[in-house]
């Protein structure tokens, strides 16, 4: 499989083959599913995809914390906090202080939140069925297994890569010392 092509400008750096680069394929698929799902869920149910993901997780793990939601879904705390506040304002979840640790808050679906979950899940499962329609049952089983293995391997992706030096983004280069500062050091040195 061709992992990339050489730069035609002659610099010799490879270029991604977006039809074969797995992180891009996963990202493109996830972005498109998220965009269309969020639009559909907002129009039909008044919540976006982030709120739906939180509702679905709370149906599986009632009374969890925002940190647990972040850990499972992979979101930063800011979007989760905003979404939980949105859901609480609409009486779809309750947020209560943890009796064992006052710094933590437990989030639980209300009856209205569970009812909304039960309406949305039918649409979510139909979207999944349509997405996977071209695959045989065996291909689906293999796909789910492979995705779970990749998920379990994410720690390896986050580990430092020793032979790759960090790159300074454009505009953030370290500026040379001011000429006056250099001459002062030389004079005082």
UniProtKB/TrEMBL annotation:
Q: Identify the keywords attached in UniProt to this record, alphabetized.
A: DNA-binding, Transcription, Transcription regulation
* Top-level lineage group: Bacteria
A UniProt-annotated Pfam family: MarR_2
Query: InterPro entries annotated for this entry?
Result: HTH_MarR-typ, Metal_resp_HTH_trans_reg, WH-like_DNA-bd_sf, WH_DNA-bd_sf
Nucleus: present as a keyword of the record?
no
Mind telling me which SMART domains this protein's record contains?
HTH_MARR
The reply on keyword Phosphoprotein is no
Residue ranges of the region described as Disordered: 158-189
PANTHER family, alphabetized: HTH-TYPE TRANSCRIPTIONAL REGULATOR PCHR
Protein name as it appears in the record: Transcriptional regulator SlyA
Q: Which organism is it from?
A: Methylobacterium crusticola
Give the gene symbol.
slyA_5
